[in-house]
Structure formats: C-alpha cells, structure tokens
Amino acid sequence: MSSIIHMPLSEMEALIEENLQTLSQLRYFVAELSPEPYRQALGDHGRHTLGKHIRHIIDHYDALLGEGTLPATATIDYEHRQRDTSLEQSPSRAAQRLAWIESRLQTLKQREPVHDAIQLVYPAGGSTLDLESSLGRELAFLTSHTIHHMAIIGLLAESLGIGLPEDFGVHPSTLRHWRREAAALSARSA
After folding, report:
1. Does this UniProt record's set of keywords contain Metal-binding (predicted)?
2. How many domains does the chain have?
C-alpha cells in the first residue's frame, strides 16, 4: 500500500456511533420477530426474506470485523463472505450476532487512533481490483449498506403487516436533516 491513513479518534467514534445506532435499531426489530415472518419468502420469485437481508448485513460486518484483532485483516473481500445461512432461519440467533457485532464495534472506541490502511478486494469486469481503503471508509460504507438493506427490510415487513418506527431504515444524515428542518420550522413559528 502506498499510503497509511490516520483518523482521529473523535471522527472514528462518530462513524462507530452511526453503525451502533443503526445496528441497535435492527437488533431490536429482529429480536421481536418470530421465525415464521422472518423466513417467509416474498417477491415474485420468492427470493426475499427478512432473514436473508439481515444475514447479508451481518456477513458484511463479519468480513470487516472477523474474530480476531480489529480490523480482522489488512485485506477485506466482501465478495467471499462467510454467508452463515443459519442466521436466515433464526431471528434470535441473528439478534445475538448483531449484539456481538455491536460489542466488537464498541471495542474500537477504546483504541488509540491507528494507521488503519486496508486493502479492499473488489471483482470488476472479470478481474479483481485491489483498492486502498481504511477502517473509517469501510465503517462509512457499512452504515450506508446497512441502511439500504433496512429500507428493503422495511418494505418487506410492511408487506407482512409488521409495523416499524418512522425512522427505521433512514440514514443518519437524513435524520439529522429532518431535525434541522424541524428546528428551523419551530424557530420560524416562534
């Protein structure tokens, strides 16, 4: 790698917090589900389940965080994820795994700022690209990726008659925008 990226702890903490808030919301949702709606096949071809989307999210965090020291490796390959299909079947197992991921992310807060250069393996056009990245960049990606799938999960849940909070699957940047708009509206009407 040609460069090493250094991120101050406060910036890293902000990225970690966004991931923790998103994962916490997802974990609470999953923990309340029974296996039947969690596994129910939806869509024209029956390819979508709540469980598959939740497993997919977990797989991506596992690719980054792994089992060992953080980050798990200097090379991340989201294409070759573990894909633990038992997480698609058991909402309680998925909720436990999400809690574990949250605890792993919490440990990142206690770290001193580190040189966190990461090599990202990305398949494109029949070959593999090795892209420079960082732990911070990958945490930013995971927030957006998780929110994207939570929006899909929200649509699937609504089709099953499962109610969700208004902010479920809404990106933290959008939530901040909504708060600014509400504050501005409140200030104008005061």
Report:
1. yes
2. 1
pLDDT by residue (tens digit) across 72-87? 457 888 888 888 999 9
Instruction: Kindly give the interhelix angle for 9-31 and 50-65, rounded to the nearest 10 degrees.
Output: 150
Residue 170 to residue 3: CA distance in whole angstroms: 34
The answer to the question of residue 171 being in a domain is yes
Q: Is residue 148 part of a domain?
A: yes
Could you tell me the residue range of the domain that residue 45 belongs to? 9-189
Q: Where are the beta strands (DSSP E) in the chain?
A: 75-76, 117-124, 127-134
- Name the nearest CA neighbour of 73 among 116, 30, 9, 25: 116
Partners of 15 in the β-ladder? none
Domain assignment present for residue 15? The answer is yes
Place of tokens 């795994």: 97
